[in-house]
Amino acid sequence: MSEEQIRSLERQFEERIARDEKIEPKDWMPEKYRKTHIRQMSQHAHSEIVGMLPEGNWITRAPSLRRKVALLAKVQDEAGHGLYLYSACETLGVSREELYDQLHTGKAKYSSIFNYPTVTWADMGAIGWLVDGAAIINQVPLCNTSYGPYARAMIRVCKEESFHQRQGYEIMIKLANGTPEQKEMAQDALNRWWWPSLMMLGPTDAESIHTEQSMKWKLKRKSNDDLRQQFIDQTVPQADLIGLTIPDPDLKWNEERQSYDFGEINWDEFWQVVKGHGPCNKERMKARVNAWEEGEWVRDAAMAYAEKKQERKQKQVG
Amino acid sequence: MNQNLYNYILGVADNSLILGQRLGSLTGHGPSLETDIACTNISLDLFGQVRSYYQYAAKIAGDKRTEDDIAMLRKEREYVNVLLVEQPNTDFAYTMARQFLFDVYHHLFLTQLEKSKDLTLSAIAKKSIKEVSYHQRFSTDWIKRLGDGTEVSHQKTQEAIDSLWTYTDELFHQTEADKAMVAEGIGVDVTALKETYYKKVDEILNEATLQTPESKWFQKGGKQGIHTEHLGYLLSDLQYMQRTYPNMEW
């Protein structure tokens, strides 16, 4: 293809996106678009899969049968999200094995928040309320993103996430209205998860390398800082309502901006965790790698059995 | 309260509770996303059944006890599940062998429980049987894949079946509550399921190119609350919150 032809294809491609048309797997797309999407979608898929671990940590210890069932279902939903998102990546010509390999070798990233430990039951509430809450703010705009399979996956993911968010908040309500010990447990969880949740919405705009291109492709519709502000404005009244205190002495309603002003985020901590030195980075990766390696003989057996079955079928036909 | 009926329900439900707990601890650690989702699903089904049974038991008890009290606040000797379901998740072969050996029994059992004169138990059985048909299909398929897969998977699965075999006979032991409930047309006569069970298991193991163990040495005790050493640890997790923070709502 001549350079001119490519430029013309690129122009048509950008025009389609500008018209809000969906790009489908078989359509022509610039290589950078493909790569950016694989990166973002796989990062999202990895986050779902690694995100199963901190919550999975409380399945055996959930305080009631009702909570246990809800938690199991929630973690299972996350596995389901991982599955759609890996499948969406596969439409761009990359296999799940390759993506796992990128995760296991540390080449691919996942949401840093899952590198924090879940130390009490209240963390199940805080994660649902805050982490899923922040995820929804990030993800709702993606329901209209330009790449069809991603947009469609996100519609389903967002519906389930908003259910999880309500479920998490409901855990917090119950704790906040419970005994002093329960209330303390809820406040402690909020104290630990608040700042990582704010960081979860990404580095501040000045430091975010992917924003501009992603905005053009509708992979991103608002900047990280705008999303963060939206999250704070939405969450503070929810904390007030149940009598919990946001652990930020600088948090203050700004009448003029009709938004909350908030304190400085510790970006050193953010980068430390992103770079692999958070409290649980090593444990999370070890758990994923172990599951994969210990499962190898199982996957091999399934393949071998399928081949044998196929052979037998062919023999019968022959 | 009808103590026999109460004990009978616990004898049925404790199996699902303990197996559900075992499977639940695997969530996020499965050999593939698909098997992870499936095992979590089975765990969810089992806990769903457990809740129906214990809610009914709580009603029969007629005091203030709740499903969670029954599930989480008994002493180790008061759990009456069979030894099979408390065996650890040694590896995927053990997990599937345990599941398979239980599912075949569970399905036969529920098919009979559906005919119970007790309408609540019959209704729970009717709902559960659909779920357990799927469990049975899933674990049977895996036994075939693993048995007739690679040399490694064959060997691991044979080892798991051999080692868990000793816990199968207990499934067909009758307790006092069993006998009383069978006499009233409420309970299932498990002794009558034994032959069909071993025949079915043998057929599937055969198809999976696995040997049906010939050992006639069996372990028992679960139904009397005398468990293997594994159960205590499982219960410490299961009961942790209820024990640490007594009398609270969650």
The tally of structural domains of chain B comes to: 1
Termini of chain B, distance in Å?
28 Å
Beta percentage of chain A is under 5%
Order of helices and strands of chain B: HHHHHHHHHH
Question: Could you state the order of secondary-structure elements of chain A as H and E?
Answer: HHHHHHHHHEEHHH
CATH topology name of chain B: Ferritin
Report on the biggest sheet of chain A. 2 strands, antiparallel
Q: Return the CATH class of chain B.
A: Mainly Alpha
Structural class of chain B: mainly alpha
Description:
The complex is a heterodimer of chains A (318) and B (250). By secondary structure, chain A is mainly alpha-helical. Chain A has twelve helices and two strands. Chain A has helices spanning 3-18, 31-56, 65-90, 96-104, 122-139, 148-176, 180-200, 211-216, 224-241, 267-277, 281-294, 296-317; strands at residues 252-254, 259-261. Chain A has a two-stranded antiparallel ribbon with strand order 1-2. In chain A, a hairpin with a 4-residue loop joins β1 (252-254) and β2 (259-261). Chain B has 250 residues and is mainly alpha-helical. Chain B has one domain (3-244): Ferritin (Up-down Bundle), CATH 1.20.1260. Helix content of chain B is 65%, strand content 0%. Chain B has ten helices and no strands. Chain B has helices at residues 3-24, 33-61, 67-72, 83-86, 92-113, 119-147, 151-164, 176-183, 194-207, 230-244. The longest helix of chain B has 29 residues, at 33-61. Chain B is globular and about 55 Å long. At the A-B interface, α2, α3, α6, α11 and α12 of A face α2, α3, α6, α7 and α10 of B.
Could you name the key traits of this structure?
heterodimer, A: 318 residues, mainly alpha, 68% helix, B: mainly alpha, Ferritin
